[in-house]
Amino acid sequence: MANDSEEDGWDALMDKFKTEKYKYGFNEETWEEEMDRIPLFMKEVPDVIDPEKYPELTALQTMIHDEDRTPEEKAEDLKNEGNSYFKKKKYKQALISYTAALVVKCDSVDLNTVIYSNRAAAHFYLGNMRSALKDATIAKKLKPDHLKALIRGAQCCIELKNFAEALKWCDEGLKLHPTDKKLQELRASADKHKRAADRDARKAKLKEKKLLGEKEILLSAIKDRGIKLFPSTRPQRGSDSEDEEGDSSSRGVSQLSLDGLSSQEVTGAQVYLNQEDGALYWPVLFLYPEHQQSDFISAFCENHCFSDHLSVMFGEELPPWDTDQKYSPSNLLLFFEDELKETLYQVDVQTSLLQVQQHQRYFVKAGTPSFIILVKDSPYCKQYLSGKKVKRL
Fold first, then answer.
1. Domain spans in the chain, listed from the N-terminal domain onward
2. Percentage, residues of the chain above pLDDT 70
3. How many CA atoms lie within 13 A of 97 on its CB side?
C-alpha cells in the first residue's frame, strides 16, 4: 500500500501534466505531415530518404539490409523495392533498386534472371535501349526460356531499328513459347519493318548508282571539253610546271573528281549536262568589288556569250546599288583571275563561257566559274588595276 509521500508525488506529477504541454507530441498544425513520416501510416515511400527526416524508415531499411540477412534475402527485398517503384512509374528509382540488388551478388540464377529482366524494363522505359538490350541479353543467357527477357530483347532491337536481330529474338522465343501472342505480334512488326527497310535500302542504292553514273557522264563531258577544275593541291609558285604560257590542261584534267563539282556557294547550284541540247549549264558568279556586291546565275549555258547576260542584268532596270548608273553593258570590263599567277585576264564580252573555260590559264574553282566586273575608265577601275598584272584573253 502506497504511503502518503508516494501519493503526494503522484498527485504532483498529474498536476504537472495538466499545466505543461508534452514536448514530444505532434504539432497541432502539422500533425498530418508528421504522421505521414511514420512508416506505418505512409501513403507512399519518398524518392529520397533523409535519415534525419525519416529516422523510423531509415531504421527499418537498415533492418532489411543488415548484414545478418543472406544475399538472396537482400536481393529479393531490393528487387521488390524496385518493383514497387516500377509500378508507380518511377523508373529511375526502380533502376537504382535493381542495380543494388545485383550488387549483392546472390547465387540464385532464377532471381538474378528476374532482376536483370526487370532492370531491362526500367532502362527501356527510360529510353536507354542499348542498356536495356544488354540486360535482356544477360537475362536470356542466364535462363534462355525467360519469356519477359525474350520479349524485351525483341522490343529493344525494334526500337534500335535492328529488325533482323529482332526477328532472331522472336524466332528464338517462339521455339520455346510457340503460342505467345506478344512474341507473335513483335515478329510480325519486325518483319514488316525489315521489309520496308530493305526496300528503302535498295531504292537508295539504285539512286546512288544512277547519280554516280550521271556524275561520271558529267565528268567525261567536262574532260572532253578540256575544262580544268581548280587543283586540290596547288603547285608551288615559280616551278617548271607553271610556265606562263605552258599547257597546264593535263594537270587540271587529272584533278577531275566528283568533289570538284560541288559548289561551295550558298545557292547550292551545280553544273549539269542538258540532255536535249548536249550543253553544259554552269552556276556563274559575277563580282562587283567597287560596291562589294555580286550576281549569281544558276544556269549559264556554255555556248552563250557574256553579253547575252549582261544586257539583261544591266538593261532597262539597273541595280539599286548603282546610284550613279555607270553599269551599262557597253561600259563594262570583264575579268577572270589566275590566282596561281596573280594575273587578271580581260575577257571580251562577246566570248562564250566555254571559250573562256578552255583557256589554258582558266580553272573552275569550287564548281562555280567566277568573274570580276569593273566600270571602264572609272577611278575605281584604274585604282583596282593599278599594280596588277593584266592580260587580254
1. 65-196, 244-392
2. 76
3. 24
Q: Do domains 65-196 and 244-392 have the same CATH topology?
A: no
Closest CA to 259 of 123, 337, 126, 365: 365
Which class is domain 65-196?
mainly alpha
Nearest to 359 by CA among 383, 378, 335, 376: 335
293: number of Cβ within 10 Å? 14
Q: Label the pairing between strands 370-375 and 280-288.
A: parallel
**Axis-axis angle for helices 147-159, 109-126 (nearest 10):** 30
Alpha carbon 255 to its chain centroid, in Å, reads 32
Q: Give pTM, 2 decimals.
A: 0.49
Cα separation, 217 vs 211, whole angstroms:
10
CB 334 within 8 A of CB 306: yes
* Architecture of the domain spanning 244-392: Roll (3.10)
pLDDT in tens, 371-391: 999 999 999 999 999 989 999
pLDDT at 352 over 70: yes
